[in-house]
């Protein structure tokens, strides 16, 4: 079985976001870029499945400009066997990304596609569900545990009410939550080795992906600031303050 | 004029409050509002939905294979009804986030996630970068709007309405490839985190599952829901459904009290809509004090017992 893993290049989660004064976007100039944290978890899970003898190949895919090759190399250094960049200069929204993934799925015939539950830049949380819909296959979103039983998988999902378990036949699309695993650290020799692993570049046009229905996204603004608060000295002052505000 | 279909969230017995928040958002969009209730044995839920203000019709689809909330089965029903509507709307809860993108893809559109404000029937404000920026999102020309509503941004609609209830047959059948096994909840009797007016929350500083009892006890005394930081959940001090933040629950209680939480942006994004934020932290430099309305520098292991004894 092959496993496909999505890798999105995003602003690192530790960076304090600054909105550009003209509202056209956020400042990414000289800003640290990383693999979307959920995608590291997705990749870690795929690697563990392979290491347990349940998959032969792990392929990382990124849809984006050439700069995303950096994140694909990180994926290769973590242990993926090969990488595919679907090349596009225009930033794509989840439906187009899902369509591109579907083309790769048709070519590679994977047993599992593992994606992150959300990209931490656009916070859309759509791509996995969309791919599952277009492919007409099961989706198991927000997964915190994945157990393979031959041709099916038992998946524990983190839902608002607690932990839900579903069973899905393969092939299936999984989106992972943070508690699924602890991704491994990349070691220097692995970074060297990753340079020799195959990284294929395919243009969006060659894949014949239709890009339409993109949402208009404009007018980036910083969120409203909360007013400056007060400090109290002890528990009794705190309770008094809450009573004054009618909260107790 | 807009024709809006809201996909109801429920547990088989009662309507989730997220649905009435979708109704308030739909009122802001303006137009005709219908609610779709799918499940098995859903008469009581449909009646609750019909009582929400400004709803025209409730469509009730009652079928065995819709009893469990599997997105694949529910999406087929929504898509079957979609031709009559300009807007398909669900909540930004895990239910809506699982279902609505599947619907959107089948309708051939991108979804507008987490509507926090309606500018017009075709222009919406939504947060990106964990709420550190707000953008205007608009559907491509003439396409259907498929969206989730950021529940923390909207008040629940009133329930003085009397919509008609129409029974509809299911148009799809059970997908053989996906099977529901079950749900395990540890929540218990405490007020629901997403609708509780007061929430008491604990972070890594609690240091153990036993110590987290301090948070439960205080919450019970205040009649509050219980929240937690990711660090506390990851360390196993409390269950995952208590996590507040970018990847947990986004909440908007009147009062939020954080004990031993540093205030990472991923946590703060989950509480920005709270009425009053109280932070207790022993580090005066903790970033949570930047957004707290009332801050107290102190050791939670002293402060919590003091609060309790003074509450009597
Ligand atoms: C992609 C991504 C998504 C994330 N999503 C979330 C999310 O949804 N929710 C979330 O919460 N986090 C999330 N995080 C994690 C987040 O970045 C922080 O790591 C986390 O919120 C820290 O939790 P904490 O404040 O409990 O722990 P810490 O940061 O370790 O803070 C503990 C605090 O307790 C104080 N303290 C220690 N002892 C005491 C004492 N005795 N009395 C009083 N104060 C004391 C310390 O001064 C410190 O400020 C996410 C991270 C990533 C990368
Ligand atoms: N451009 C992209 N390239 C590769 N994977 C992506 C891309 N966009 C989204 N994904 C995958 O889809 C997941 C969810 O993204 P989103 O739907 O944008 O929140 C991410 O965690 C990735 O695994």
In angstroms, what separates the terminal alpha carbons of chain A?
A: 59 Å
Enumerate how many helices of chain B there are, as a single number.
9
Number of strands of chain A: 13
Major beta-sheet overview of chain B: 7 strands, parallel
In terms of quaternary structure, what is this?
heterodimer
Mind telling me the C-alpha Rg of chain A? 21 Å
In terms of per-residue confidence, which ranges of chain A show pLDDT below 50 for 5 or more consecutive residues?
none
Overall CATH architecture of chain A: 3-Layer(aba) Sandwich
Largest sheet, strands/sense/barrel of chain A: 9 strands, mixed
Residue fraction in strands of chain B: 25-35%
User: What is the highest CATH level, the class of the largest domain in chain B?
Assistant: Alpha Beta
SS-derived structural category of chain B: alpha/beta
List the helices and strands and how they pair.
The complex is a heterodimer of chains A (248) and B (312).
Chain A: E1 2-6, E2 9-11, E3 33-35, H1 37-51, E4 57-64, H2 69-78, E5 82-87, H3 94-108, E6 112-116, H4 127-135, E7 139-149, E8 152-159, E9 162-169, E10 172-176, H5 188-194, E11 199-203, H6 204-207, E12 216-221, E13 230-232, H7 235-244
Parallel strand pairs in A: 1-4, 1-6, 4-5, 5-11, 6-10, 7-10
Antiparallel strand pairs in A: 2-3, 7-8, 8-9
Helix pairs in contact in A: 2-5, 3-4
Chain B: E1 3-7, H1 17-29, E2 32-39, H2 43-50, E3 57-62, H3 71-81, E4 87-91, H4 94-107, E5 111-115, E6 117-120, E7 123-128, E8 133-138, E9 145-149, E10 164-168, E11 178-184, E12 198-202, H5 209-222, E13 225-228, H6 230-234, E14 255-259, H7 265-268, E15 276-281, H8 288-291, E16 294-297, H9 300-311
Helix pairs in contact in B: 3-4, 5-9
The structure holds flavin-adenine dinucleotide and adenosine monophosphate.
Flavin-adenine dinucleotide sits between chains B (203-205, 229-232, 243-248, 260-262, 264, 266-267, 270, 280-283, 286, 299-301) and A (13, 37, 120).
